[in-house]
Amino acid sequence: MADQGGSQHGIARTSRVRTEDQKKRDLERIQKYRELEDQVRSYVSRGDYSASVFQLTSKLLRLNPEYYTIWNVRRRCLISGLFSRPSAGSSCSTACSNTSPTATTTPSSTSSSSSSSAATPRGPASQTAGRSGTTAEASSSGPEASEARGDSNCDAAAAAAAAAEQQDLSTIKTELSFTIPLLLESPKCYWIWSYRLWILQQAIQRLRSRVSRQIWEEELGLASKMLGKDRRNFHAWGYRRHVVAQLESATLQGGSMVEAEFAYTERMIHTDLSNFSAWHSRSKLIPRLLEERGADDAARRAFLEEELSKIREALNVGPEDQSLWYYHQFLVLNLVYPDKHPVMTRGLTTQDRIAYLTREIDEIKDLLEDYTDVQLIYEGLFEYTLYLCQLEGRQADAGERADLVAWLGKLKRLDPMRKGRWADVETELGLKEGRDAE
């Protein structure tokens, strides 16, 4: 019988009472799990990382993908035999460099006497009698035979390298496929994401760049699908940034993807304004975006205007959404601290910054007409008013002090769990005396 026990993130908490049969089945599963674990540990203690151990890790990780030690055992199994092992002289270039033909001068019967005297005559030991008693001009140890053996070695090395790459490619794809069901079931399991990255690094080390790049591009598609299922999965967002960085690298013969990724954040924000990770990624992309666009001061100012307009519209829809306020704060900090955040505000004068910040404060005050009990609005007004005084190099005037006192009163009521913090702020800024005087 289910017992309602509250909810978290909109999901009801329930407690269930298990029957004796259910308890018995659970104990049996636990026993099988422990036996499987003991088997793996027994093999590992003997240094055995064979295919048998590899299969055991598959069974164990399907039961518990959080078991990071078993992921490490799986890695050892791969590098101990399932991946190809490069051997000395296995590449075509190595084989060919060791079999270069030797130039030999052979005198001709039609050469002049001076040419004949310059050539090195062959002694009896270098001559081989044929069936007719004549001397054979080529032998199995001659330059033509050496060159033929070199070509043969080169072909064999190329075939071996191709076979090794095909083996590694198959193993890499199989491993990536193995983790997909685990990710779908546990999309925020750190160890699965970590293992996939390790497999992808093996692709870079073992495959040609063209083949490796194709695998990494497919991985970017997977990251998009995972974010489609859970738009705010910060594991997937961090993973996506890593994949993009690799695709942009010279190792994979890549180029900048900043425009495409910026457009991606736009789509994700349009789908869900509360997507903090999308706003965060957007803030990280902006410096590179403006730099690669070659944006001058006017273009940067226009970009700032556009971003402020976008976030104001979002705040009008959801002023209780903390994700929006974080991004708005990011933009405001560009105005307040130009030395630390010069990206969008390069070329703005102090008066320009003051004008922008004053407008933002006025826009936030307008929100109070429709939303009187949203804590984040009062926090924003309080913080930005102090920033304005800082930019202008002055103390708050009487009207601003009255506003600060009133906003603090609201914050104490709306945020009682941090009432002590607001009291400390009140004392630190000398607002308590002003409130008492009133």
From TrEMBL:
Residues 86-126, 136-145 have a biased composition (Low complexity). GO terms for cellular component: Rab-protein geranylgeranyltransferase complex. The keyword Glycosyltransferase does not apply. It catalyses: geranylgeranyl diphosphate + L-cysteinyl-[protein] = S-geranylgeranyl-L-cysteinyl-[protein] + diphosphate. Keywords: Prenyltransferase, Repeat, Transferase. One of its GO terms (molecular function) is Rab geranylgeranyltransferase activity. Signal peptide: none annotated. It is an enzyme of class 2 (transferase). The keyword Transferase applies. Its EC number is 2.5.1.60. GO terms for biological process: prenylation. It comes from the Eukaryota. Residues 1-25, 85-152 are annotated as: Disordered. Belongs to the protein prenyltransferase subunit alpha family. Catalyzes the transfer of a geranyl-geranyl moiety from geranyl-geranyl pyrophosphate to cysteines occuring in specific C-terminal amino acid sequences. This is Geranylgeranyl transferase type-2 subunit alpha. The lineage of its organism: Eukaryota, Fungi, Dikarya, Ascomycota, Pezizomycotina.
